[in-house]
């Protein structure tokens, strides 16, 4: 069996050309490695735009023209990406002053931003208000007091949504008594804290409560999770209308749609999933006798993951007789900590070379001084894999660049965008001078 046949081409933007070279966004990979060096983060601009359009058209069809898609920029945050997201008509979810500042420098209209975080300092609150962030997604009572005070100083009424914990376990799809209520985020409906913070939010002069937000998890493939979540949230909206006379204008049902990292995982139909949820929510609202609030979704991973690929160069191949083989590359947990942190599966392919029946099963590892620095285990590799060969790790657009570190004082790779057969730099390669520059 040839493993690198179409089955392994898990993304639509991947193929092998007539010379057998792996191509991404229609571009052969070895000239990119030559031009920019490795390790190298690549982004397929057209794929980011395609994913944005899929979401936007689906939410508009399902929930009406006012519905919004807020890209969760923790998945990947750099100036060029905010520009693209803005051009595509999405808003953003930001979680720190760093993300707000990056978006601002990219010219992103911050009135289209939701500011998250379970612990916004006074400095964060002030920075966001000063820069005109549209909405705070308020996590707790302390934050309400801080926003009210700082909004007063700036003479504004700050729009907010409250983060609510609906108590849905994304793995069982069920509303659970504990578990997901036991979270550092938001106020639980079940404990009465969600209602309490709603009443409290309505008492501030310098705060306008617009509605509610929830996010139950990530890498979710089943629409049932969203059906269960939205049912609980709409029930809460109806309760708040009945009990507090509060009419919810905005309801954000979070992000979390899953992406395909390996052939065994499904390629989720984003549009179909959203339409199923929209139909059910409209029926639920009618049943509850409430108007359906303006809906927003907050996807991160599914906007950028399959638009990303990381290129590495093999440095060493170590075969331990009776044990296994290690292929070491010039990156590792510093540019992709997700296997080390979560045991996440990935597809890693040689840029050249076929994997035949005699494929050698290897661990692909990084170059950090740590045994846990593994990119993936049990990866089939060509038997002649050797120093200088290029490897591509697929589906690396989400939570890679944004989670990269300088562990071992290793500089972070550059980000290069691919578009229409051209490439351009979006983030420069970090240098060791960049790393040392804060040391006194
Ligand atoms: N909204 C909120 C409030 C979130 O906390 C998140 C993700 C999202 C939206 C976007 O979720 P997505 O569509 O990307 O699944 N570092 C982990 C993922 C952490 C997700 C944190 N919150 C990873 O690498 O898998």
Query: What global shape is seen?
Result: globular
CATH topology of the largest domain: TIM Barrel
Can you tell me the CATH class of the largest domain? Alpha Beta
Annotated CATH homologous superfamily of the largest domain: Alanine racemase
Low-confidence stretches: 1-6
Word description of this protein:
By secondary structure, this protein is an alpha/beta fold. The protein has two domains: 6-44 and 306-435, Lyase, Ornithine Decarboxylase, Chain A, domain 1 (Beta Barrel); 116-299, TIM Barrel (Alpha-Beta Barrel), CATH 3.20.20.10. Helices cover 30% and strands 23% of the residues. It is built from twelve helices and 21 strands. The protein has helices at residues 29-36, 45-63, 79-87, 97-105, 122-130, 141-153, 193-201, 223-244, 270-288, 301-304, 338-342, 432-436, and strands at residues 14-16, 22-24, 27-28, 40-44, 68-72, 91-94, 113-115, 135-138, 158-165, 187-188, 207-213, 250-252, 294-297, 308-319, 325-329, 348-350, 360-365, 374-381, 390-394, 415-419, 422-427. Strands 4, 14, 15, 16, 17, 18, 19, 20 and 21 form a nine-stranded mixed sheet that branches. β12, α9 and β13 form a beta-alpha-beta unit. α8 (223-244) packs parallel to α9. The radius of gyration is 23 Å and the shape is globular. The termini are far apart. Residues 1-6 have low confidence and may be disordered. It binds ligand LLP. Residues 72, 75, 93, 116, 215, 218, 254-257, 298-302, 338, 399 line the site of ligand LLP.
């Amino acid at each position: 069996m040839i493993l690198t046949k179409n089955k392994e081409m898990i993304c639509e933007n991947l193929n092998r050309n007539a010379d057998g070279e792996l191509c991404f966004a229609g571009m052969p990979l070895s000239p990119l490695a030559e031009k920019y060096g490795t390790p190298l983060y690549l982004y397929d601009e057209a794929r980011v735009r395609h994913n944005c359009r899929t979401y936007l058209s689906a939410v508009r069809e399902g929930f009406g023209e006012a519905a919004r898609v807020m890209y969760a920029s923790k998945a990947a945050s750099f100036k060029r990406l905010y520009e693209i997201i803005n051009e595509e008509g999405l808003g953003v979810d930001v979680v720190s002053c760093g993300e707000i500042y990056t978006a601002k420098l990219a010219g992103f209209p911050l009135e289209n931003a939701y500011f998250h975080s379970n612990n916004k300092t006074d400095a964060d609150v002030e920075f966001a208000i000063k820069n005109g962030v549209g909405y705070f997604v308020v996590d707790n009572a302390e934050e309400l007091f801080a926003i009210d005070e700082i909004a007063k100083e700036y003479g504004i009424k700050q729009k907010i949504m409250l983060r609510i914990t609906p108590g849905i376990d994304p793995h069982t799809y069920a509303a659970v008594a504990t578990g997901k209520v036991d979270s550092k985020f938001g106020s639980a409906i079940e404990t009465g804290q969600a209602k309490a913070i709603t009443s409290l939010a309505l008492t501030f002069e310098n705060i306008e409560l617009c509605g509610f937000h929830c996010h139950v998890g990530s890498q979710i493939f089943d629409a049932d999770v969203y059906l269960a979540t939205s049912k609980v949230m709409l029930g809460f909206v109806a309760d708040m209308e009945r009990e507090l006379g509060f009419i919810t204008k905005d309801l954000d049902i979070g992000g979390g749609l899953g992406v395909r990292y390996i052939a065994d995982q499904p390629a989720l139909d984003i549009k179909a999933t959203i339409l199923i949820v929209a139909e059910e929510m409209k029926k639920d609202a009618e049943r509850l006798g409430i108007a359906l609030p303006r809906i927003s979704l907050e996807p991160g991973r599914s906007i950028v993951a399959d638009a990303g690929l990381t290129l590495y160069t093999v440095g060493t191949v170590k075969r331990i007789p009776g044990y296994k083989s290690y292929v070491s590359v010039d990156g590792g947990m510093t540019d992709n900590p997700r296997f080390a942190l979560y045991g996440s599966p990935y597809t890693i392919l040689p840029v050249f070379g076929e994997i035949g029946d005699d494929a050698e099963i290897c661990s692909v590892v990084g170059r950090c001084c740590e045994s846990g620095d593994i990119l993936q285990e049990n990866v089939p590799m060509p038997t002649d894999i050797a120093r200088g060969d290029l490897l591509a790790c697929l589906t690396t657009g989400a939570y890679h660049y944004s989670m990269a570190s300088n562990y071992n004082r290793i500089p972070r790779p550059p980000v290069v965008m691919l578009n229409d057969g051209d490439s351009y730099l979006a983030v420069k390669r970090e240098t060791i001078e960049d790393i040392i520059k804060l040391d006194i």
